[in-house]
Amino acid sequence: MRLRKNAVLYWMLLPGMILVFVFHYLPMAGLVMAFQDFKPWLGFVKSPWVGWENFQMAFQREDSLQVVWNTFFIACTKIIVNLVVPVVFALLLNEIRHMGLKKVIQTLVYLPHFLSWVVFGGIVGDILSSQGIINTLVLPSLGLDPILFLADGNWFRFVVIVSDNWKEFGFATIVFLAALSNIDPSLYEAAEVDGANRWRQTWAVTLPALVPIVIVVGTLAMSSVLNAGFDQIFNLYNPLVYDKGDIIDTFVYRVGLLNSEFGLGTAIGLFKSAVGFIMVIIAYVLASRFANYRIF
Amino acid sequence: MYYKTKSYRIFYALNIILLSLISLACILPLIHVLALSFSSGLAVSANKVTFWPVDFNLDSYKRTLGDADFLVAFYLSVARVVLGVVIGIAVTVLTAYPLSKMDSLKGGRVIAWFFVFTMLFNGGLIPSYILIQKLHLMNTIWALVLPGALGVYNMILMLNFFRAIPKELEEASLIDGAGHMTTLIRIYLPISMPSIATIVLFVAVGHWNAWFDGLIYMQKENWPMSTLLQTMIKAPDLSQRTVSDAEIVNLTERTLKSAKIFIGTLPILLVYPFLQRYFVKGIVLGAVKG
């Protein structure tokens, strides 16, 4: 009886499994292109096999090496900044006792997360342009010269990291605020009785309570070491900053798709996926060991 | 109490000022661009506009919305949001329900990892592009709806929510002779409305904001709103439109761009109050369970 009833459970799973098989697993099979000189009119079967040639090419071309380094640099800086800022912000916000004000602050800082990089990039592009408010109003009033934020490679990287943090830090505080609100108030009362001031309480009670969730978020972020943010870069960059700002995903799009170098593009994409995969496995093992994290 | 000490009071005042400034920094750029979009081109060029429109006018909106491409794009975006939400939620719920019983379901854990694996590894851009080509989905709305129809992250949120529902409810229903489908629809769905609402909003916002799939899979005349906006904001093209002398006073590239940025933002701002009611709870539920 029970078993007959359970059969329907497998039918329920079928649509999802078909969708995932077609749109996620079939493209994985398409990764064989990385080892082919793929020609669309020849297909997977007839395109000539070239072994590791695409990878060799990818790691010999100067531009693709630069792209891997850019990706790594931008992604790692983002991981660190996007962990530290939300933790500090959550700690500061946790001190606010006026609930109305706290609510208003949360409403404002969560908002940018929901805007797409199309509009957010448009906003960043406008205010940082040579006619934008920063260059025509803010910097002159500070006595500084205009800065070509989006045309100078180093400034571009800076803008990418800061604007990403600006868009996402608020949303990232949610999990930390939740952990803070779960702290047992009697711990603070005990610390108070022992004569600890708020600074001591933060060190002795608040921070230790945050450590597990910081470990989880931090290790899981490791899987993004080659994820520098396609949407953002694509909507902010221009040929002037390719040397410092071009990343794997934008490179794959331009070289692989627009220039139809399918084999090369797929090889670089596979490199990125493989590194991400290894990192996420390491991260998951670490997170489950040190913070008892489980997906299900 | 610690908050009555003088040093803590000074800190508290500084903290309020700092956090208020940071939160304002999240919203002021948007207000600035909104002010630009309602201002005259002359005022914008002369850098007179900060956070309030100068020489208020609606010309850049009239120009943008008068574009026939825009209506088509709007229709396509609405269509993909509706289809994406309906199909997405149906598949997500249907997948999450059996997997929430994965321990008693034979092969359940393996199937669960079949889904989770797609979050860990993917074929990447070019194989996905070729797949859409081979399936003859190019330039159809299904290219925008089907590939992401099952969001595995949302499915896991849903799964964890279903798991928290007391077993007794399900057992009572099954003993009464109801099948799993009836139990799902009559018992589970009504209890889960808040988390379903969260996922609906997330999926809808995701579809509204998605632009890259439109750019690579659709032809120019079938671009959804975000893709059209993306191409207009990133590479504005005024050459194909003639601007009359009366308009040139109010229209510049920047005011037009600003209007487009705001049009892209408006639907998100409209659903944001609803979003905010739900997402904090949904995310916390999914993220910090021990």
UniProtKB/TrEMBL annotation, chain A:
One Gene Ontology biological process? transmembrane transport
Q: Does the keyword Transport apply?
A: yes
Q: Where in the cell is it found?
A: Cell membrane
Record key words, sorted: Cell membrane, Membrane, Transmembrane, Transmembrane helix, Transport
Regions annotated as coiled coil? none
Q: Which residues cross the membrane?
A: 7-26, 67-93, 203-226, 262-287
Indicate how the chain sits in the lipid bilayer.
Multi-pass membrane protein
Ranges of residues in domain ABC transmembrane type-1: 68-283
What InterPro entries would the database entry show? MetI-like, MetI-like_sf, UgpAE/MalFG_permease
- Supply the Pfam families for this chain: BPD_transp_1
In the record, the note on similarity to other proteins reads: Belongs to the binding-protein-dependent transport system permease family.
UniProt name for this protein: Putative aldouronate transport system permease protein
Naturally occurring in which organism (per UniProt): Paenibacillus rhizosphaerae
UniProtKB/TrEMBL annotation, chain B:
Record carries keyword Cell membrane? yes
Q: Which family does it belong to?
A: Belongs to the binding-protein-dependent transport system permease family.
Q: Which GO terms describe its biological process?
A: transmembrane transport
Main localisation: membrane
Q: Which organism is it from?
A: Paenibacillus rhizosphaerae
Of the GO CC terms on this record, one is: plasma membrane
InterPro entries xrefs: MetI-like (IPR000515), MetI-like_sf (IPR035906)
Annotated membrane-spanning segments are: 12-35, 72-99, 111-132, 144-166, 187-208, 261-280
Give the matching PANTHER family.
Answer: ABC TRANSPORTER PERMEASE PROTEIN MG189-RELATED-RELATED (PTHR43744), POLYGALACTURONAN_RHAMNOGALACTURONAN TRANSPORT SYSTEM PERMEASE PROTEIN YTCP (PTHR43744:SF9)
Domain of life of the source: Bacteria
Sequence ranges assigned to domain ABC transmembrane type-1 in this UniProt record: 70-272
UniProt xrefs under CDD domains: TM_PBP2
Gene3D superfamilies associated with the record: MetI-like
Describe its membrane topology: Multi-pass membrane protein
Q: Where in the cell is it found?
A: Cell membrane
Which of UniProt's keywords are assigned here? Cell membrane, Membrane, Transmembrane, Transmembrane helix, Transport
Q: What is this protein identified as?
A: Putative aldouronate transport system permease protein
